[in-house]
Design a protein that fits this description.
Number of strands of chain A: 7
Strand content of chain A: 35-45%
Number of helices of chain B: 5
Largest sheet of chain B: 4 strands, antiparallel
Strand order of the largest sheet of chain A: 3-6-7
Structural class of chain B: alpha+beta
Strand order of the largest sheet of chain B: 3-10-5-8
Radius of gyration of chain A: 18 Å
Number of strands of chain B: 10
Strand content of chain B: 25-35%
Oligomer: heterodimer
Distance between the termini of chain B: 48 Å
Number of helices of chain A: 2
Shape of chain A: elongated
Distance between the termini of chain A: 28 Å
Order of helices and strands of chain A: EEHEEEHEE
Structural class of chain A: mainly beta
Shape of chain B: elongated
Helix content of chain B: 10-25%
Largest interface: A-B, 26 and 41 residues
Radius of gyration of chain B: 21 Å
Order of helices and strands of chain B: HHHEEEEEEEEEHEH
Helix content of chain A: 10-25%
């Protein structure tokens, strides 16, 4: 389930809100906490010319240049996560033990054109 | 062929695999969450980003590397007291099924906790102590006391507290599929004090629960360390 989107939608590449509910996934029986979390995702365009705030690489800048010359042959760079953060989860394993595990790269904090 | 409702979709399977699970857990008798795990979870949730990232492969509360903390419940049973030397108050097999530990995990800490209903085992007289011994036993067959065998842990107490912690990291450096220990608590003191030693032992039923907290470094963290 996704909470209502921000009021000022931007077409540019940036993090978008995505709330993952473990009961929607059907995992509420074994995940103790959290019941869900704000995972986010990356969405939006990487247009030419690439602005600095789009966290682009040199390669992505050149790719957008080539794309502007040859839109059919070369795609635009992709809008992808460039900084993710971990979350911790408490759950029961298959032997009914309680486990606390730290999972890396679970939340999208920043996106970039790559 | 029809797909059983209990079967997992390939997507769900792959998600579980990426979380380090071979199957979807379905707890039969969910146990309460140990307070120590709740505390760690809440503390980590409140951490700001840079700290959260930095500490994701470390268990700060226990000051050890690790990203997986498990609490194993004891599946052992009380044992006959056998041939006691002095006043043997309690003899119990402690058995922990460690088969969920994955191949690539590296154990960084193992802590045994013995819990009592209250602060019992108060030695009533001077010179009287309670002795606690932990022996490593073979998971196969009934463990038998062996004369001259050195215990893994040996402590003397004038007063046993509600919760006792023992570091078993060294004993579990090469963990197998299970861990079996024999716990003995006995009372000793001056000759002729058998009455008070007996009363000292009488509170043996105050023994409440045993658990084993195990911290490991999973493959995700180990790979990250190697890269660095």
């Amino acid at each position: 389930s996704a909470p209502s989107p921000p009021l000022t939608p931007s077409p540019l590449c940036k993090p978008r809100r995505l709330y993952i509910s473990f009961s929607d996934v059907g995992w509420e029986n074994w995940i103790i906490a959290p019941q869900g979390y704000l995972a986010n995702y990356c969405g939006g365009d990487c247009p030419f010319p690439l602005a600095a705030e789009l966290n682009s690489t040199n390669h992505a800048v050149l790719q957008t240049m080539v794309h502007s010359l040859d839109p059919q042959g070369t795609p635009q760079p992709c809008c992808v996560p460039v900084r993710l953060s971990p979350i911790s989860m408490l759950y029961y394993d298959n032997s009914d033990n309680v486990v606390l595990r730290h999972y890396q790269d679970m939340v999208v904090d920043e996106c970039g054109c790559r | 062929s029809p797909v059983l409702a209990t079967e997992l979709s390939p997507q769900e399977n792959s998600l579980l695999k990426s979380l380090g699970l071979s199957a979807k857990p379905s707890p039969k008798k969910p146990v309460p969450v140990p307070p120590v795990l709740w505390r760690m979870f809440q503390k980590r949730k409140a951490l700001p980003w840079p700290d959260k990232e930095r500490d994701s492969c470390r268990v700060e509360e226990l000051n050890v590397p690790g990203d997986i903390v498990r609490v194993f419940a004891d599946q052992g049973r009380f044992l006959p007291e056998g041939q006691p030397q002095g006043w043997l108050c309690l003899r119990k097999l402690l058995f922990f099924n460690l088969s969920v530990l994955e191949e690539g995990e590296r154990l960084t800490m193992a802590q045994l906790e013995l819990q009592f209903h209250h602060n019992s085992y108060q030695a009533p007289g001077p010179g009287q102590v309670l002795e606690l011994r932990l022996y490593q036993a073979s998971p196969r067959g009934l463990p038998q006391p062996q004369p001259g065998r050195r215990p893994l842990v040996e402590r003397s107490f004038v007063h046993l507290h509600k919760s006792l912690l023992f570091n078993l990291s060294a004993a579990l450096k090469m963990p197998g599929r299970s861990l079996a220990l024999v716990l003995e608590i006995s009372a000793s003191g001056r000759a002729g004090a058998s009455g008070s030693l007996r009363s000292l032992c009488a509170s043996a039923d105050a023994f409440s629960a045993t658990s084993l907290l195990v911290v490991t470094l999973g493959q995700q963290c180990r790979a990250g360390r190697s890269r660095r």
